[in-house]
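Dear support,

I submitted the protein below through the web form. The confirmation email said the job was done, but the results page showed an empty box. After a refresh the structure appeared. I'm attaching both so you can tell me whether what I see now is the final result or a partial one.
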Amino acid sequence: MCAARPYECFWWSSSSAQARIWTGWLYWFNSSKRNTLRHCVWQCLLTYRIGWKSAADWAVAHEAGSTSKDTKVDYHNNLMGRVIGTHLDEMTYPSLVGKAVILCDSSWDAGYLWYLDDLKRPRWSDGRLISTYRFNEPGPNNP
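What the results page shows now:
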């Protein structure tokens, strides 16, 4: 995709690195939260910088070919990051990445994000189990 979309590739790479650095530093002690927020922050920044459709295209390319439980969780968290990314302008904070981290962290606290527990069961970020029906239903964020 980078050859066909070099401008977007720059922002994909930059947003990915920023998300990895910030979530790795802030959530080093919790791998489930770190991975969940990394996807949320990445897609949040990417949506703000290149728009919903392009950010979604990069998310699908990133997850291409995998149908694992982890990928389904990533699709959900990517979608939530895009939703949040459409609202970054509404928050006053000096750092764009800081805004993304705060909003994604708040979404974690509110129970809107997904993760896999130690037994690989999908859960909402407030700890509720995700029903098998909900987790397996097809949709735009769960191909």
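Response: this is the final, complete result; the empty box was a page-load delay. The beta strands are 114-116, 122-124.
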